[in-house]
Structures are given as structure tokens and as C-alpha cells.
Description:
12 strands; about 40% helix; about 290 residues; Aminopeptidase; purine metabolism; 10 helices; Alpha-Beta Plaits
Amino acid sequence: MCKCFSGVTVQGALRSSSIETTEENLLQLKYEPESVWGYVEVHIEQGPVLENVGLPLGSVKGIAGQTRLKVTVKGTQGHAGTVPMNMRQDPMVAAAELIVFLESLCKQPDYYLSYDGQCTSSTVESLAGSLVCTVGEISTWPSASNVIPGQVTFTVDVRAMDDSGREAIIYEFSNRLYHMCDRRSVFCNVERKHDANAVVCDPGLSTQLKSASYTALKRITGEDPGDVPVLMSGAGHDAMAMSHLTKVGMLFVRCRGGISHSPAEHVLDDDVWAAGMAVLAFFETLL
Length: 287
């Protein structure tokens, strides 16, 4: 059960507002697919592409699938000054080697992946434009400057538009991981903590949003804005969940420096206005 810092659960907060979260009550709130025409989401890009091309809006063709792993590397804890280098079972340097390998794998997947029934040339090609891999957390135990750590854990976040390609990357990383750990005489374990399949936006909605963006920008500037970009989203969005209910489309809005999840996140008022005009133009096509 999810709790806030004060110890109050979501269910408890709802109950205090006279909302009972029983399965029966929640099922009554459930949308039926036939009652929903579609879902359109407007969101900042959270990336630098629109700013780079000098346009405030872009249509989204799909949302990358995601896998998150937790990697644990266990070695032999010891004194930093008394254990010779060639006698160490150091999980920190093993983890460092694994992280550097992950970077190479995700930068050059075609170099590492073999072509077989599970991984075709088209799968590898699709990874070239969407694959990103990140180690966002790393921790060591006992975490003292004069101690060879006994254990290191780190997270791996893998995202790609091609789900089979993402699985191929995870398989290759895991396979190489165990070989590297054996060579360094350390124990390694990989846990899958999260999986979400990629979502392809409805082609019709994407085309309509692209056309609506073009119309809005032309109305605002009085000039031909050129071709509106069609982008892939590497970040997860509500549209991923809504895709199980209905067709989805997304419109991206330019943000300064591609920065998000930071106090430096910023969107121009004029770009927000452009997004609103694009949504209006989109609705006009439905009338």
C-alpha cells in the first residue's frame, strides 16, 4: 500500500473523503472502450529536438518501451591498504566494467547483437534511432573510503521503440555480465523491476495532429512553417496506459534546453499558445 511521508495511505485519504475504494466501486468507474473515441495528450518534449529545429510543436509517432533492472555485484570486503591488487574480488571495478560495456552495447548494438531468429537486421536497424540506456543509481556497501566494498548495486534503464530489440539488448547485457563477473570472481545477479511495452500512436491521429500543428503555426506567423517534425517519445506518458482503452495521439511542445524534472524546466508562453491553437485546429477537423 502506497503511503505519503505522514503515513497516510491513498486508500485512507480517499476513505476520509467518503470514497470507498472497493473493487466493485472501482469497476463502476471503469470506462468501456466503445464509450471513448480516442485520447490526445499534449506534453513538453522533455528533449532538445524541437528547440534544435526551431519549431514549437511536433507530432509523436510512438512511445518507447521500457525495462528497468537492478544489478547486484557481490565481492569480498577488505581493507583498502592491505589487500594486494591481484588478490582482490572487488565488486566496484566489476560494476564499472559492466556499466562501460552497457554504454558500448547501446551505442553500437549492431556490433554486439547476432542475427538469428530472435534478432533480425530490421530489429537492429530500429534500435539505431531509439535505443537509450541509463545507469541512474549506484550504491556501495559499506561505503567507506578505506574499505574495498563487499557489494555494489546499480540500476539499468533500457528504452527502445522495438520491444524485441529491447529484449535482445537485455539478453546480451545479461549474458556478458555473467561472463565478466566469472572472470573477476564476483557474484552477479540481475532482477527485472519494471517492464512496459512500446506504444505506437494511432497513425490517423498523428497525421491529424501534425496537420493541425501546421495550420496553427501558419495562422500565428502568417508564414509557411515548413514540415512539422514527427518524433519518438523516450519518456513514458499517460498515453501508454490509455492505449489499452483506445487509440492515442500526442503533441509535443518545445522546452528550453530539453530540460525536464528540474527547476530549470521552462516552456515559452508563446509555445503554450501555439499548442492550444493546434488543439483547436485539431478539434475543427472533427466537426
